[in-house]
Amino acid sequence: MKQFIFIFVAAMSLNLSAQQTLPKAEIKTLDGTATTLQKISKDNDLIVVSLWATWCVPCKNELDAINDVYTDWQDETNVKVYAVSVDDSRTVSRVKPLVNGKAWDFDILLDTNNDLKRELGAATVPLTLIIKNGKIVYRHSGYTPGAEDDLFEEIKKHS
Hints:
- By secondary structure, the protein is of the alpha/beta class.
- It has a single domain (2-158), classed as Glutaredoxin (3-Layer(aba) Sandwich), CATH 3.40.30.
- The protein is built from 6 helices and 7 strands; from the N terminus they run αββαβαβαβαββα.
- A 7-stranded mixed beta sheet has the order 2-1-5-4-3-6-7.
């Protein structure tokens, strides 16, 4: 049993340290310009990245909730939010109309091949990350109403 616990703790430690570095996967802006999380994080000290999809109701609920308080977040912490759609080639055409209808204030990026999602080891969406100075400092899967408040508390810890 002690051996199992040691192996489990060692594996978790490796997993946590592996998640600290940013993936190199290429993602695109809505106009087709290629970028990476590494490039984005160089331009901003503190960013939130939310992986989402047009077919994911909790994802859209989370982004709506964040959008409602985003201006306050920026005023207080200077954080920048990026919403990365993991819609594939069959559903990516729904992203622009949805985003336009929602009028979200943050940047929308596309991960149509799910390369970023895979590199992050994301089994499900929404997956929300806080990235500070090029390192992942917080990671959360799923969404329940009010989780945006917890996210903001984490943002303030790192700002």
